[in-house]
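Human: I hope this is not a bother. Would you mind checking the protein record under this note? Thank you for your patience.
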Amino acid sequence: MHCFLRQLLTVAFVGVLLLAGQAQAADKPKLSLEEQEALALKIFQDLGKVPEGKLDVFNHFYREVIEKCPDTERAEISYWRLSNLLIMGYDPPRRKEAIELLEQFLVRYPASKGVGHVKSRLLRLYEDTGDYCKATKLYKEIIPNIPDPPDRKGLSYWVLYAEALEKCGQKEEARKWYEKVLKAAKDPESMSAMIAKDGLSRLNK
């Protein structure tokens, strides 16, 4: 009985400590931009001393810049480098963590020059993890910026959008985009045109 009570008290005490720590962190004032720049620079200098292969150390430092120096350019760089680490450094890749990270980037830095690269990487991650419905939502943000008729790269976005729609269950919308790809394709034997033909063949079964 005494052991049980002791365990309960220990759990309660740890909970109080955690809450106190969270409250203290919440009360801590945000660093000024100058302080953020100085801290981010120091962390990047420390990163340069980390031996190759120390993935968790790199992970920690990049997250520290993201959390403590969010208004700096190095924070944006840290998002991208950390996503590289999560996808290409770890085995198996930590794709879900990378998705959460890059989604946070888009919320925090909607006007960043890196938004296009981040969206492209997110699309690949959504498709790699089978989340085609999320992919379609992101394609809807990208597609309006593609000229109509599209160039070769734009056409590849169209057909990838059609595939994502099909895999998300939006078959009629997928059909529409496959047909648009075939109509816009200058070469009927191009990769995009062939994918569109295959897509329509599946939908017509």
